[in-house]
Amino acid sequence: MRKMFFISMLVLLAGVLAACGSSAQPAAPVESGSSSPVNIQIETNPNPAMMGNMELILTITDGDGKPIEGATVDVSADHTDMTGMGMSGLATEQGEGRYSINANFSMSGNWKITVYVRKDGLDYKEDIEFKVQ
Ligand SMILES: [Cu+2]
Q1: Cα-to-centroid distance, 42 and ligand 1 (Å)
Q2: Confidence (pLDDT) at 43
Q3: DSSP codes, 1-44
Q4: How far is the CA of 81 from the centre of ligand 1 (A)?
Q5: Which CATH number belongs to the domain containing residue 77 in this structure?
Q6: Is there a domain that residue 125 lies in?
Q7: What's the number of domains the chain is made of?
């Protein structure tokens, strides 16, 4: 229950990842490459990532390191070792390229976070491996 303390003030303001067994994936986004137009850094609160309720904070910048603001940022999470544990939701913009979303990670282990960043002509997807203690 101690994790609840860290995020209780943020829940009302931020997006929430909702558990969902059959979320439709958007079609054919651009996969990340070596010369990526978008960089995504992921932080968690609490840090390191722990089972239970967590806030994920994504800092999204362009190839020049400038924050990407005003984007639509979809986040999904899958427990890599199992099926049927997917969650997805829309992150809430916090300014200066930061986007946050709350999620309940019901199991420890390896998760894959998939982030979709869309703005004007930009349609970008990145998978981020993620370990929950
Ligand atoms: Cu699981």
Answers
A1: 21
A2: 95
A3: -HHHHHHTTTTTTSEE-EE-SSPPPPS-PEEP-SS-SEEEEEEE
A4: 7
A5: 2.60.40.10
A6: yes
A7: 1
Residues 6+ positions from 117 with CB-CB distance below 8 Å: 38, 40, 60, 68, 71, 72, 73, 123, 124, 125, 126
Residue 84 domain flag? yes
> Which residue in this structure is represented by tokens 């932080």?
43
- The CA 9 to ligand 1 mean position distance, Å, reads 27
Q: How far is the CA of 79 from the centre of ligand 1 (A)?
A: 5
| CA-wise closest residue to 101 among 72, 80, 61 | 72
In the 8-state DSSP scheme, what is residue 67? B
Q: Tens digits of per-residue pLDDT, 22-72?
A: 444 444 555 554 457 899 999 999 999 999 999 999 999 999 999 999 999
Q: What is the DSSP letter of 91?
A: P
Q: For residue 86, which phi and psi values (nearest 5 degrees)?
A: -75, 150
Q: Compute the distance from residue 107 Cα to the ligand 1 centre, in Å.
A: 5
